[in-house]
Amino acid sequence: MSxxxxxxxxxxxxxxxxxxxxxxxxxxxxxxxTQVVGADPxxxxxxxxxxxxxxxxxxxxxxxVGEDVAALDKSAWQSMRTRVAWLGRESRLLSVQTxxxxxxxxxxxxxxxxxxxxxxxxxxxxxxLGLQNADMLDNLPxxxxxxxxxxxxxxxxxxxxxxxxxxxxxxxxxxxxQVETILQYLDARIQQQTLSxxxxxxDAAVIMPRAQRILFVGKESMLELNEAxxxxxENDEVKAWRRDxxxx
Amino acid sequence: MATLTRTLDTLLGWPGAFILxxxxxxxxxxxFISFVLYAWFSxxxxxxxxxxxxxxxxxxxxxxxxxxxxxxLSLITGFILTFRMIALFDSVGDxxxxxxxxxxxxxxxxxxxxxxxxxxxxxxxVDLGNMKLHREIESLEAMGVDINEYLxxxxxxxxxxSQLVVAVxxxxxxxxxxxxxxxxxxxxxxxxxxxxxxxxxxxxxLALFVVKNILFGLTIGSIACYHGxxxxxxxxxxxxxxxxxxxxxxxTLFIIDGLSAxxxx
Lengths: 248, 265
Prior knowledge:
The complex is a heterodimer.
Chain A: E1 6-13, E2 24-28, E3 33-38, H1 41-51, E4 58-64, E5 67-68, H2 74-83, E6 84-87, H3 99-109, H4 115-128, H5 146-158, E7 164-168, H6 176-191, E8 196-200, H7 204-207, E9 213-217, E10 222-225, H8 227-232, H9 236-245
Parallel strand pairs in A: 3-8, 3-9, 6-7, 7-8
Antiparallel strand pairs in A: 1-2, 1-4, 4-5, 9-10
Helix pairs in contact in A: 3-4, 3-5
Chain B: H1 2-42, H2 49-64, H3 67-89, H4 95-133, H5 136-141, H6 147-185, H7 193-200, H8 203-229, H9 237-263
Helix pairs in contact in B: 1-6, 2-6, 3-4, 3-6, 4-6, 4-7, 4-8, 4-9, 6-8, 8-9
């Protein structure tokens, strides 16, 4: 029986602390896709960031890769962060380093491999993820296009070989083709059970066919559904969200 | 009566509030420096190439790249101070001691520090401030990169090393250029000051020179980093924190300078 990558027991972010809600029970296992949706993107981001262990304000218990987040010391927390990756809307590269140096920085810091091997791996990843032009790898982030920038942020995380990626509308600037290219790459690793994905995308229909589970973030709490249950739900918030997403 | 009471409260309360604010700043700054240096030295990051590289980069930017400016300033100071002091005090008394104390222990470190503040101190505060503002630091921390180890400690230690190197260079060029000028324009006997200056250096003086410059460098680096990282959400905070950093660095340097002067009494 494999250890859940994410285990939340009676978990609720402190944003909701005035409510009597007992919190959610959630387990994310290896090789799964969990989609997170909701009408309010700020609320969705807050939940996802809290589940990623990046917020200290929550009630209940949160375990990531088998470790209680509240009990981690500094070294263990740093190690955990290489296994549970966060890709948010605000994820940025260092403006003073080239694109290549940015991608290699965390992997070199954590001693994943030598520079030459990581560079080769980074180039391979960029190619797999659909980067056509590798000329800007020595440019500063201010001098590269948005597509390359976003791929750079993604590759920076992938070089750490995380087991769980929590992605909050990270691909919002991408068209459907670009999103599909990235998802197909991630699908291969998910099927090998070496990666799990918890993802929120503004166009929910793109992710829905892949998700084994859908978490709906409402005003009061979080509902755990699947695609069929989401489409059939009579909950007013869910219905309003379906109308906005043009799923009805 | 109420107005008088309020006025008295304000007048009497102002010095206390001012002192408390300065004490609070000192405590926060000291805590910040302690955490940073602990993060660096506890894991012996000097042996980690990825952390060692920013340190080397900082030394090159702060020390090596500053050499042309320092050379120019030291030649000018050599003319203004060393040459003039030899001309004025040669007939009066112990010129060598005066030159070493004034140039070596006062002017040299201070001018080197002021040069580093204007070049590096402001650059560090702006650099880190912008990184904080654009959430670049947050993204690194989310991947388990310790900012104190990777970004802050190399800057502080790099500036400390550079301050010492720059001060040595500045002091040497200032003294040598002044002596040479004096020998050429006043009397060839003044060339002997080159040897007298070397002989006149005492161990206590040398130790104070090294400690003072290391302290200056640590002060410049740590206060610049502290204020840069204090930027929160608004772009207007970057110049505000940079300005505060420069003022606080200068104030602290003069305090250290004054305290170090008391050591020699």
